[in-house]
Amino acid sequence: MSVSVASLPVAAQTKAPLNPQSDPFVLKAGSTFSAAGSSKTPPVDKELFEWPQRPSRIAGELLEAQKLINDNYLDAKKLKSPDMTKSAVAGMLQVLDPHSNFYDALEWKELLDEQRSGYTGIGATISTFARDGQVSTYVISTWPASPAARAGLKFGDRIVAINGEQMSEKEIDLVRDKIRGPMGTSFRMMVERASTNRIETLEIKRGRVPQPSIPDAYLLRPGIGYIELSEGFNYTTDDEFEKAMRELKAQGMKSLILDLRGNGGGIVDQAVKVAERFLPAGRLILTQRGRSRVDNRIWRSTNTNAEQMPLVVLVDENTASASEIVAGAFQDDDRAIIVGEKTFGKGLVQSVIDLPGKTGVTLTTARYLTPSGRSIQRDYTNLDLYDYFNHKTSGPQIGRAYFEARTITDRKVFGGDGVQPDDVVTREELTEQRLSLIDPIFQFAREVVSGRVSGLEDNRMRDRTFGSRVTPSDFPVSDRLLSEFNSFALKSKNVSPTVLTSEASFIRLRLRYYIVMASFGAVSANQVLNEDDPQVAKAVEALPRSAQLTQRAAKARQK
């Protein structure tokens, strides 16, 4: 199979708990996959492809090296042939670019499942928190109708052991890997129930868990729609977007905020379909240039009834690849105001190619350009993978030549380093003071929703209704609740009275976030964060300017 993808290793979520967290499945930020047929290997112009030496000779050298290692290496008995093969292939790909990768059988299955809007697992989001000096993994939320939900896992349940192996003090990735496994297989999970503090053992059967690319869509306020497209572009994205738009219009939506923060990319054709909804027929969306003639493509809108409503797009440093295609197309066309932080800067397209043994590779086969002709790809020379994916640069930025273009309304747009927002709004840094509050906030919320804090029984966890709309007046954090938390937190040596006073607003927000999470799930909890999000507030403020920009662009095209 060969599919073109544009996505990126997603490092962090904008609205996730502030501790290390493992979602059901998150694709690496910067993976852009282009839908380009279904062959085992992508077609390549023969006249462009010449081996410096015969493939048989290369294979022979690899086998000879492996034999030499097996015959002479001190700990050869510990070596595994599949691991050595994976390392050899991965090493070859690593010298190409940061986005060409090799995937073993499990990783490959996860990648393909993600493109199909789902994965095999139990459908739980987990995170690590400390209690009495011991770090443990806790269940934060479960997907509706998932194996985790059917097994009765709930917010705050502490994972004690999996198949008899203790999980305390274990890295979250190890816990995640223990939970995952083949479809239909079962495992035993020992948990400490948040509600009773009792230890229970659950038998959980792994299954396919749907993972929509649009977790939430609702009215932020009357007339203003909000669509969170944060989980990448997969084969169901266009259908999900159509459903969200239809439902929001029925509720009276007149303008839209499209949230692409944390969207690491995905299937190019699906991203193009989202952009096409707002761009009239004939408008250029994307140009793709590759080594093969097959990879040279142009996408234009064919929509004769494009949406006219004001549009603002939210982006951040983890908005990558296919989502940058959407943001770049809207910006070049003067169709939307872009708000937030500079995007990741990934303008390369990978083909997804099957290999024997149910493994595969993503191989960079093309680059894309926005309608103005700019490349979003930032420089990755002289950078190791860690620095590249953590947004570090390879040298001084002053004087570096970037591509510059102008839109039809004479706005400047730039290439060579992601999409620059029209309105830059950075998120508040997670200070050491706030870091010291994360564990006690979670642990106290766990006590509150379990009904163990006298006088606060109204906040007890109730029967869950996934996806409920939360209004600003729901679940207020009372002065009594805040006072009880302060008493709880002062028992920790890491929290001082001064911090509790200066960070009272942060504490209220996070307590309410977890209380809502416990009863209604992650989607509703994220609505709480949106209420206090400066980037969302700026997006609302920018909607009238977006309408004016679209009008100016329309007049300019008539000249």
Q: Which percent range describes the beta-strand content?
A: 15-25%
The residue fraction in helices comes out at: 25-40%
- Indicate the low-confidence ranges by residue numbers: 1-5, 8-18, 23-30, 33-52, 394-401
Radius of gyration equals 25 Å
What is the CATH third-level topology name of the domain at 216-349 and 367-424?
A: 2-enoyl-CoA Hydratase, Chain A, domain 1
Our count of helices gives 15
- What is the arithmetic mean of pLDDT? 84
Q: How far is the N terminus from the C terminus?
A: 47 Å
Any guess at the CATH architecture of the domain at 216-349 and 367-424? Alpha-Beta Complex
Q: Report the structural category.
A: alpha+beta
The CATH superfamily of the domain at 216-349 and 367-424 is known as 2-enoyl-CoA Hydratase, Chain A, domain 1
Major pleated sheet: 8 strands, mixed
- Tell me how many strands there are: 25
Shape: globular
CATH class of the domain at 216-349 and 367-424: Alpha Beta
Describe it:
This protein has 559 residues and is of the alpha+beta class. Among the domains are: 119-210, Roll (Pdz3 Domain); 216-349 and 367-424, Alpha-Beta Complex (2-enoyl-CoA Hydratase, Chain A, domain 1); 432-520. It has 15 helices and 25 strands. The protein has helices spanning 55-72, 81-94, 105-115, 147-151, 172-179, 237-250, 268-276, 322-332, 385-389, 432-449, 479-489, 497-502, 504-520, 522-531, 534-558; strands at residues 2-8, 21-22, 30-35, 101-103, 118-121, 124-131, 134-142, 158-162, 165-166, 186-192, 199-205, 207-210, 216-221, 224-228, 255-259, 265-267, 284-290, 297-300, 311-315, 337-340, 348-355, 359-369, 404-406, 412-414, 423-424. Strands 1, 3, 4, 16, 17, 18, 21 and 22 form an 8-stranded mixed β-sheet that branches. Strands 2, 6, 7, 8, 9, 10 and 11 form a 7-stranded antiparallel β-sheet that branches. Helix 10 (432-449) crosses helix 13 (504-520). The longest helix is centred in the last third of the chain and has 25 residues, at 534-558. The protein is globular. The two termini are 47 Å apart. The model is unreliable at 1-5, 8-18, 23-30, 33-52 and 394-401 (pLDDT under 50).
